[in-house]
Amino acid sequence: MKYALILGDGMADYPVPALNGKTPLEVARKPYMDMLAATGKIGLVKTVPDGFKPGSDVANLGAMGYDAAKCYTGRSPLEALSIGIDMKDDDIAVRTNLVTLGDEEPFENKTMLDYSSGEITTEESRELIRFLQENVGSDEFSFHAGVSYRHCLIIAHGSADMKLTPPHDISGKRIGEYLPAGAYADKLTALTKQSYELLKDHPINKKRVLSGKNPANSVWFWGQGTKPALDDFRSRYGLKGGMVSAVDLLKGIAIGAGMKSVDVEGATGTLSTNFAGKAQAAIDMLSSGTDFVFVHLEAPDECGHQGDLAGKIKAIELIDEKILGPIYEHLKSSGEDFALLVMPDHFTPVSILTHSREPVPFLMYSSKAALGNGKAAYNERTATENGIFYEKPWELTREFFSL
To answer: Which has the closest alpha carbon to 269: 302, 242, 295, 294?
Structure first.
């Protein structure tokens, strides 16, 4: 039996007036999802436990069948695993975005213009992070380069008792009231201000501005936590697992859970990602001894944060055509029984530009037998109408792996 989870990050949404009260999932052309829906099981699952913010870290742990309330220690530590940082038990990892701030003065009046610096390339961003480490890094605070705009600050022998705000939650807002609070508030604020002075006139940013791109003119800290400790996935579910993702967070979850994680050339986490390459990577793993593959697609979430309605619809259509379709056709032709689970980790509505915590719609399909509802389409509306709800996400995971 083979299993595949296709996760469209932030794919779920609210009804959109411009779509006549429908959601992107409802209007997107997704023949494979809707075909599987005809014999699959559709419902809702709560991926974010009470008391937790609806971040992709917590929500993806839920989608993988983990109890975040027991194993979650913060977002950045999971990303640190992927980057290859050897965290000490008393180190604190802090997600460090390269962002675009406005030119308002004083510093507190600046606006969060772009949480991703125009989705800056990894090559450019790594040079900027190295520049910061050389100029403001220390034994206490060290910068480590990740992918695109996503990087890491390690605080040696630190405390995670900080109040930090994700930059995608304050798009278009004045940053003053969202600057670091709690432990290290003054030091982290000083580092933020220093980064702006160092980066705003850096040659890379001058070149980006001349090309009409947003400059990566500041860092922004959030997502702090201690060294993670996840249960081994194979010990937990009896399956050899693999991860296909462009995002350090998901790669880190995979590494922490003892799963195989593969890098796909051209995988960016955006609409420009190598969809075909990610599908082929999943097929290759399933063909070479892996029992379960988790394919993570970041593009719907990025479009939701940017308020890009057309882009979000396109992302869903590409996931159906370039990811779900090839994996389904491969498994169908293999002659082996298989099961598929399609879902988002959380909502990222284009109307609010950030995550929300509602239970998400799932579609579960088995090649062995019809599972249920006979609905002609997979979306938030049909999932709600069915009245099927899993409060604990691992109950859905266990049912999926029992098919």
So the answer is: 302
Residue 201 has a pLDDT of 97
Which pLDDT does position 269 carry in this prediction?
Answer: 87
Instruction: Please tell me the total number of residues recorded for the chain in this structure.
Output: 403
Q: Which two tokens stand for residue 139?
A: 């034994």
CA distance 286 to 288: 6
pLDDT of residue 373: 63
Q: In whole angstroms, what is the distance from residue 46 CA to residue 320 CA?
A: 23
Which fold does the domain 2-71+229-401 belong to in CATH?
Answer: Alkaline Phosphatase, subunit A (3.40.720)
Token pair of 316, please? 């869903």
- The two three-digit tokens of residue 308, written as one number: 């890009």
Please state whether the peptide bond connecting residue 106 to the residue before it is cis, i.e. omega within 30 degrees of 0. Answer: yes
The upper half-sphere exposure of residue 330, i.e. CA atoms within 13 Å in the direction of its Cβ, equals 19
Reported as type and span, the H/E element at residue 132 is helix 122-136
Residue stretches of the chain with pLDDT short of 50:
none
Residue type, 258: G
Do 344 and 10 meet the contact criterion of CB atoms below 8 Å apart?
yes
Residue ranges of the domains in the chain? Answer: 2-71+229-401, 82-225
CB 378 within 8 A of CB 30: yes
Q: Please, are residues 6 and 324 in contact by the beta-carbon 8 Å criterion?
A: yes
Q: Is the dihedral of CA 135, 138, 140, 146 positive or negative?
A: positive
Angle at 326 between CA 384 and CA 397, to 5 degrees: 40
**Predicted pLDDT of residue 228:** 83
SS (H, E, C) 357-382: CCCEEEEEEECCCCCCCCCCCCCHHH
> Whole-angstrom distance between the N-terminal and C-terminal Cα of the chain?
9
